[in-house]
Amino acid sequence: MDHAAEAHRTDLMTITRYVLNEQSKHPESRGDFTILLNHIVLGCKFVCSAVNKAGLAKLIGLAGETNVQGEEQKKLDVLSNEVFIKALVSSGRTCILVSEEDEEATFVEPSKRGRYCVVFDPLDGSSNIDCGVSIGTIFGIYMIKEGGEPKLEDVLQPGKNMLAAGYCMYGSSCTLVLSTGSGVNGFTLDPSLGEFILTHPDIKIPKKGKKYSVNEGNAKNWDGPTAKYVEKCKFPKDGSPAKSLRYIGSMVADVHRTLLYGGIFLYPADKKSPNGKLRVLYEVFPMSFLMEEAGGQAFTGKQRALDLVPKQIHERSPIFLGSYDDVEEIKALYAAEEQ
Ligand code: AFP
């Protein structure tokens, strides 16, 4: 019997233990972040359970409302949003919450206020719910600027100011990927324990990938650099093999695959949507943060994605993210076009 392997398997690194370990590296830390994260984890577990039971519980179907983006809300969107808002407020560690589902930011009442601002999409990819495709929650965490009342400017900060970002994917397994600014780690929910266990330590994205991920149905409206890049993926002229296309249409699932296998995920601007589709605060920033922490890059077509300063909470931006070398290629095509 391989005792070392056995010991390894029984020494379970839960997400709470991991964050407490991280916390102990900062003696000044008061444990607020650990408490906040525990509440996010609770929200993820609840949504995971609701997604798994959706068919059975007859939760699938329209809730009869339209959200701020003009999209139909599914019951699970509504439920997930409520769960996260309540979990985050009750943590006593948040002051401003921005959710994809709510037109306005939520300012937490003074008696329950803490120093963190959380931006999140409670259930991204919800148009995929009915067919059982992986969907997820995306979140980013800022700290309120020192002093005074919380203001909207506290969340209208560039993505590079985030303290942490992550997503939880509700798929064949429930996987939470997190970065607190020193690398990226993946935790898988063990349903029998009800705990997220570290299963993907120190994730590094391959420097170059073999897959590209984009909605090709929008190709007729793409700009020059995007069209050239995708053409290069399919018909490389340097003798390298063509890339394979993978597109789920659920950002968490497409980014998760890109992070683990390498390659590039694109949601570019096009003639119909000059700012792209994806939202800066709770889609573009958290995923860009994770990509950079894993050794990849994220680019908007004009600049490093994390340098963008949003003016509105539901702002959108084009995004190209993934393996370092693949993003470098699209950056070169945009630079060439500018000249
Ligand atoms: P839904 O939440 O409406 O399913 O949108 C998902 C999403 O915001 C993101 O998760 C996908 O990457 C992207 O939209 C897919 O958009 P297209 O359907 O236009 O390709």
From TrEMBL:
Keyword match Translocase: no
InterPro entries the UniProt entry points to: FBPase_C_dom (IPR044015), FBPase_class-1 (IPR000146), FBPase_N (IPR033391), FBPtase (IPR028343), Fructose_bisphosphatase_AS (IPR020548)
Cellular location(s): Cytoplasm
Entries under CDD domains matching the protein: FBPase
Catalytic activity: beta-D-fructose 1,6-bisphosphate + H2O = beta-D-fructose 6-phosphate + phosphate
Top-level taxon in the UniProt lineage: Eukaryota
Gene3D superfamilies registered for this protein in UniProt: 3.40.190.80, Fructose-1,6-Bisphosphatase, subunit A, domain 1
Protein name: Fructose-1,6-bisphosphatase, cytosolic
SUPFAM superfamilies on file: Carbohydrate phosphatase
First-level EC class: hydrolase
UniProt KW keywords: Carbohydrate metabolism, Cytoplasm, Hydrolase, Magnesium, Metal-binding
GO-annotated cellular components: cytosol
Residue ranges occupied by any Fructose-1-6-bisphosphatase class I N-terminal domain in the UniProt entry: 13-201
EC number(s) reported in the record: 3.1.3.11
Gene source species: Sesamum angolense
Molecular function, one GO term: metal ion binding
Biological process, per Gene Ontology: fructose 1,6-bisphosphate metabolic process; fructose 6-phosphate metabolic process; fructose metabolic process; gluconeogenesis; photosynthesis; sucrose biosynthetic process
Residue ranges of every copy of the Fructose-1-6-bisphosphatase class 1 C-terminal domain listed in the record: 205-334
NCBIfam families (UniProt xref): PRK09293.1-1, PRK09293.1-3
Cofactor(s) for this UniProt protein: Mg(2+)
Protein family per UniProt: Belongs to the FBPase class 1 family.
Keyword Nucleus: no
